[in-house]
Design a protein that fits this description.
Strand content: 25-35%
Largest sheet: 3 strands, mixed
Bound molecules: zinc ion
Helix content: 10-25%
Structural class: alpha+beta
Number of domains: 1
Shape: globular
Strand order of the largest sheet: 4-3-5
């Protein structure tokens, strides 16, 4: 949980975003290419070794104003797969899973798609 909040606090607006469009999921009728990015969502990727966090990568995802607002609000949770960079929005009120109000992003090492691909690869070996 601490990692997630830190990630949100690292939303930075100092980077030149001109020409960049939103890197998060939008609907097919209203694709993310139509949404200019206004901010970055950042997350450190790493492992916690005996209480020491080893950061080996930082991902920066450009986000549009709409997505940034959703990230700060309490209504939506973003699931983001750090393997295939796909994202999925979950409406908290419609979800079977109960999320705390302060949960905004769930970082996944693999999403269901990656998971089934990884399992397939293991089978083929
Ligand atoms: Zn967006
Ligand atoms: Zn994935």
């Amino acid at each position: 949980m601490e990692m997630l909040d830190e990630g949100l606090q690292k939303l930075i607006a100092t980077v030149d975003l001109e020409g960049t469009t939103c890197g998060l999921k939008h609907s097919a009728e209203d694709p993310s290419e139509d949404h200019p990015a206004v901010d970055y969502l950042c997350q450190n990727l790493g492992y916690d070794l005996d209480g020491n966090i080893m950061i080996d990568a930082i991902i920066q995802i450009p986000v549009c104003e709409e997505c940034a607002n959703a990230l700060y609000g309490a209504e939506w949770v973003l699931c983001y797969c750090t393997e295939c960079m796909s994202s999925q929005w979950i409406l908290k009120s419609k979800s079977k899973v109960r999320f705390d109000n302060d949960v905004h992003v769930i970082w996944m090492k693999e999403c269901p798609v990656c998971y089934s691909e990884n399992v397939q690869q293991l089978d083929e070996q």
